[in-house]
Amino acid sequence: MAKKSSKSKGASAKAAEEHEVAETVQKTGDASNSEEIDKAFEEAMKDGAGESAKSGSGDEDGDEDVEIDVSAAIQASGGHLDLDKVTVKDIPGVGPSIAKKLAESGFSSIRAIATLPPKMLMQESGIGEKTADKIIKAAQEICKMEFVTADVVFEKRKNLGKIVTGSNALNEILGGGIETGAITELVGEFRTGKTQIAHQCCINVQLPVDQGGLSGKALYVDTEGTFRPERLAKMAMAKGMDVKEALKNVIYARAYNSEHQINILRQARKLIETQNVKLIVVDSLISHFRSEYFGLGALGPRQQLLNMHIHQIQQLCDTYMVAAIVTNQVQAKPDIFFGNPTIPAGGNIVAHGSTYRVFMRKGKGETRVAKIIDAPGLPEAEAVFKITEKGIEDAET
Ligand SMILES: Nc1ncnc2c1ncn2[C@@H]1O[C@H](COP(=O)(O)OP(=O)(O)OP(=O)(O)O)[C@@H](O)[C@H]1O
Ligand SMILES: [Mg+2]
User: Domains in the chain: how many in total?
Assistant: First the structure.
């Protein structure tokens, strides 16, 4: 049976929704292929089933009549709003009750609000739909989200920060390293090196820019209990770093279930703003979702919540230009007899949610093979690297 996926949803509405989703899936016929099931549920969600979970009651907070006068705010500040200093409280029309709700749910930055879908702002802060819409529009106005030409985007992308992985071959197929502002998904069977790369990047992100880092900290969300500070220490030592300092720069959180995982990411916003976090690791992205939501009736709610979670991560990447590494498992593909019999878990939701998808497999001995399987602008290239006592290295050194 599916878990409760939304605070605002009544039990009967939820039961009806599950029934509706299950029916939709049954209508699609053969449900033996999990990929197909995932797809069918996603379709069902798009068609409106489950919508009740996403939308709030609208006027429950009594803030519906809020009028937000952006030009007054800009004028009041002399025409130059410093986005790093201004908060939602500074927008005329945002009264104390809304400001409190926003602050309590971690939304103090206008930049963060400007990039949120209204439904997410509603869900996370508990404010009504119209108010959420108005606040986001006001924030967008202040941030001046305009059309730009490709050359501007080109210049911006040239300056995108990258975190080196430890292997030049792997950096090269990634276009320089783990990119900021994007989700890089490492997917593969057990012991293929996903956690090792994540650990290595937590060390490398601390390096100065000219050494392939971002002079920043890492936030490590561990869902499987495989985080090892002693491994980080060895990797830091191999780079001649101050080990104690290096460990202090990795902020760790153990997520005990999917709701906890989502909550940690909600709190991440404040940490990123105050602690110079440049890398978020979620290892693994979907293990809790997979174990908690099983059976046909649970797939729809699972995918819906997972979708929200991935957007949560993407939104942090977009807003604060941090990099995200998420790890993912593989699942058996029953209809494949030749070639790779496994596919990434999580269906289309994860496939569409991650920007770069790297498939990893074991090579000879300590070597591993990484292949870019889905990346905007990058070819489907392969790189061989190895995992040693020092960390991630090129296979031929
Ligand atoms: N100190 C070390 N020295 C050399 N190799 C190591 C060391 N620590 C780990 N490894 C290698 O890394 C492998 C484990 O990789 P990792 O934990 O990253 O796998 P994973 O892809 O995250 O697997 P899972 O899906 O089980 O989480 C080990 O099997 C070993 O080959
Ligand atoms: Mg692992």
Answer: 3
Do residue 132 and residue 225 come from a single domain? no
More confident residue, 17 or 195: 195
Residues 297 and 243 in one domain: yes
Task: Residue 197: give its domain's CATH number.
Answer: 3.40.50.300
User: Cα separation of 170 and 271, whole Å?
Assistant: 29
pLDDT in tens, 324-347: 999 999 888 777 667 777 889 988
pLDDT of residue 251: 98
pLDDT tens digits along 357-379: 999 999 999 999 999 998 888 99
Neighbours of ion ligand 2 (CB under 5 A): 194-195, 226
Ligand 1 atom closest to the Cα of residue 188 is: 21
Burial (Cβ within 10 Å: 0-12, 13-18, ≥19) of residue 227: buried
Pocket of ligand 1 (CB under 6 A): 188, 190-196, 226, 387-389
Domain coverage including residue 86: 70-143
Nearest CA to ligand 1 atom 12: 193
Which whole number is the average pLDDT over 380-386? 96
> By CB neighbour count within 10 A (0-12 exposed, 13-18 middle, 19+ buried), where does 205 fall?
buried
Residue with CA nearest ligand 1 atom 11: 387
pTM here is 0.77
42 C-alpha to ligand 2 centroid (Å): 27
Beta-carbon contacts of 321 under 8 Å, excluding residues fewer than 6 positions away, are 160, 161, 180, 181
